[in-house]
Amino acid sequence: MWDAMAGTGAFVALGDSFTEGIGDPYPDGSGYRGWADRFAERLAADRPGVRYANLAIRGRLLREVADDQVPRAVAMAPDLVSLAAGGNDLLRPRADPDAMARVFDEAVARLRRAGCQVLVFTGFDPRTFPLIRLIRGKIAAYNMHLRAIAGQRGCLLVDLWSMRALADPRAWSLDRLHLAPDGHRRVALRASEVVGLPVEEDWREPLPPAPVLARHRAAVWLAARRADAGWAREHAAPWVARRLRGVSTGDGVPPKRPELLPLFPQAL
Questions:
Q1: Which of 35, 47, 148, 267 has its CA 20 to 30 A from that of 197?
Q2: C-beta separation of 94 from 133 below 8 A
Q3: Percent of the chain scored above 70 by pLDDT?
């Protein structure tokens, strides 16, 4: 197991909205926290002053992460780099998991040659939600590549697909694409466990039972379909419209922590 406390104590997070922290806003409205901030805070709790940069930007495709973020991370010479990318690609009809894996492998190889340990994240299992689960096969194929890359390149692996607690819809935001705060908290705990950081909570702990409403089966089905229609109108349709216009939610958005700066302990 990699020693999280060895080296200079520098961590750089790369990727898209998942690593930027969308779905997990800070209470004061100052931005998004997310699993990476939470994980970095745990690093700082054990090693005060650990340096942390987060270059992830919502909407980024895998090639953009590889071409824009990876070189910046290499230049920072951190001990640990997290790489979670490809989710936005897989949402597109022509996504090719095999071609994506080659891009991912090149990015990992570059980081490893620079002396960075790499924390690789698989994709989530989307079986919880209608429509999105239609790409489940592509995600599974991509994940097989990612697990192989992590093994061949000597990386650490956070297998999001196997996190059963994230199969609960309450772990997700209303857009069904981004984790809710508790989902980000669980991912941070899982990542901490993978690198060997001490944790006092268990990411496997199931959510409390959902309240059971005395409804006829037909009424339950109708309520679910109304929720699906609302999601399609409020979240899916705008996403399709952006694709048709060739724009991204990340256009013009800078990284939230572009510099490798000390992070001091705070409430977890």
A1: 148
A2: no
A3: 79
* pTM recorded for the entire structure: 0.85
Q: Give helix 181-195 / helix 34-46 axis angle, nearest 10°.
A: 40
Q: Which amino acid is at 119?
A: L
Q: Chain centroid to CA 66: how far?
A: 16
Question: And the tokens for 187?
Answer: 């991912």
Query: Class for domain 10-262, per CATH?
Result: alpha beta
Residue-wise pLDDT for 200-219, tens only, equals 899 999 888 876 655 566 65
Show Cβ contacts of residue 122 under 8 Å, excluding neighbours closer than 6 positions: 142, 143, 146, 147, 157, 158, 159, 160, 161
Asked if pLDDT for residue 88 goes beyond 90, the answer is: yes
For helices 136-153 and 97-113, give the axis angle rounded to 10 degrees.
30
For residue 23, what are the CA distances in angstroms to 58, 173, 249?
A: 11, 6, 14
Mean confidence (pLDDT) of the chain: 87
pLDDT score at 231: 47
How do the domains of the chain map onto residue ranges?
10-262
